[in-house]
Specification:
Blueprint: H1 5-11, H2 13-24, E1 26-34, H3 39-57, E2 62-70, E3 73-81, H4 88-99, E4 114-120, H5 124-130, E5 149-156, H6 165-183, E6 189-202, E7 205-218, H7 224-239, E8 250-253, H8 263-266, E9 269-270, H9 275-278, H10 299-316, E10 322-329, E11 338-342, H11 353-363, H12 368-374, H13 383-386, H14 404-410
Parallel strand pairs: 3-4, 7-8
Antiparallel strand pairs: 1-6, 2-3, 2-9, 5-10, 6-7, 10-11
Length: 412
């Protein structure tokens, strides 16, 4: 069947971009990242700190910890069932201290925030769907998904991390800015920060950085010109290869002119609100479920990691240069209710998306219990995922392309 251009737009935003690049031969794509002191990331790290503390004592903990921060208040709520004995206040204050909210003029300060705890045990109705045992009305005894939902995984060959260019550069800017701040080299930097990168593509290849945006919180006594010069010379030009920058590249540094009031003092923060920052910067799609504060029985998190693992192995195997996998679950059910691999026309010659999908089914198990086992997820590893993306980092089990050879062999 012949596929029309407007059909492709309905299939995927990435397919839309690929088709646009074919027609116009040039487009600009932007992605953003946020720093550790951004209010939403403050909430995320508190939630993941609670999760890690539970798993450190009881690997079978069921955790769904949500956090809200505003002004000098932290609210934690959600459902936790665990044998772990936790000092929630100490965990929360330690997480805030690690970020760097310890300055004498911080309204949101690690030692003085008010903490409200509304955590309760997990619902028994949800638990019986996840538990590996019989229950009234439950048709199977296997561990099922902790909720219904759709999950996506994505990978491409644009960067060594097999991630899209714009989001990786945005994360690198944030990491470098945080490294400088925590080193003490610059005493006017404060924790709240954001970055954004716009990259021009020609013939589907990233060729130049069109503009770079950095907004960073700072002390009252530093002038804008000092901030601008320092960040361009010591952050931007350190992060980007020289061939990606040129005379036309625009630098927008603290474009409002002032960013003294920041963090939860300026804006409220909520767990799970930066899902695009956490994933692929807008390239690969996202099913909607947030990650932080959730134990791996929640497929919002574990299955998204699974999808990334599968996609990275597909690209590493040379079966496609860009690939996205989508699959879906029903609560309490162990098998995905659907699965589809899309390569956006970049598959290896002679190999179809249907063949890749079938090979994926042969090589990988998508049962929630098997995902947890294959990726070794019952460990306190989640604080290291919170900032600068959950994908494209070394040391994470879903970033290992150890099934590429098996996938290649499974293609008929």
């Amino acid at each position: 069947m012949k596929l029309r251009y407007d059909d492709i737009i309905l299939v995927s935003p990435l397919a839309n971009l690929l088709c646009s690049s074919i027609m116009a031969n040039s487009f600009v794509f932007s992605s953003e990242s946020v720093g550790e002191g951004h209010p939403d990331k403050v909430a995320d790290i508190i939630s993941d700190s609670v999760l890690d503390a539970c798993l450190a004592q009881d690997k079978y903990s069921r955790v769904a910890c949500e956090t809200m921060v505003k002004s000098n208040v932290v609210i934690v709520a959600g459902e936790i069932t665990t044998r772990a004995k936790l000092d929630h206040e100490a965990i929360i204050r330690s997480a805030i201290r690690d970020i760097g909210y310890v300055n004498k003029d911080d309204i949101f300060h690690a030692d003085t925030v008010f903490i409200n705890n509304y955590l309760t045990p997990q619902s028994l109705d949800i638990a019986q769907g996840v538990d590996k045992k019989k229950a009234k009305g439950k048709k199977i005894t296997e561990q099922g998904a902790g909720d219904q939902g759709i999950m996506f995984g994505y990978a491409c060959n644009e960067t060594p991390e097999l991630m899209p260019t714009s989001i990786m550069f945005a994360h690198r800017l944030g990491r470098e800015l945080t490294s400088i701040r925590k080193s003490g080299k610059v005493n006017w930097l404060r924790p709240d920060a954001k970055s954004q990168v716009s990259v021009r593509y020609e013939n589907d290849k990233p060729i130049e950085v069109v503009n770079v945006v950095i907004s960073t919180q700072h002390t009252e006594d530093v002038d804008h010109a000092t901030i601008e010069k320092y960040l361009i010379e010591n952050v931007i030009k350190k992060v980007f290869p020289a061939n990606m920058l040129n005379k036309k590249t625009e630098y927008l540094i603290n474009p409002t002119g002032r960013f003294v009031i920041g963090g939860p003092q300026a804006d409220s923060g909520l767990t799970g609100r930066k899902v695009i920052v956490d994933t692929y910067g807008g390239w690969g799609r996202h099913g909607g479920g947030a990650f932080s504060g959730k134990d791996p029985s929640k497929v919002d998190r574990s299955a998204a990691y699974m999808g990334r693992w599968v996609a990275k192995n597909i690209v590493t195997a040379g079966l496609a240069t860009h690939t996205e996998i989508q699959f879906a679950y029903a609560i309490g059910h162990p098998q995905p209710v659907s699965m589809h691999v899309e390569t956006f026309g970049t598959a290896k010659p002679g190999v179809s998306d249907e063949q890749i999908t079938e090979a994926v089914r042969k090589v990988f198990s998508f049962k929630p219990a098997d995902i947890v086992s294959q990726l070794n997820l019952l460990r306190p590893i989640y604080r290291q995922t919170t900032n600068y993306g959950h994908f494209g980092k070394k040391g994470l089990s879903w970033e290992v392309a150890n099934k590429a050879a098996a996938l290649g062999a499974a293609i008929k």
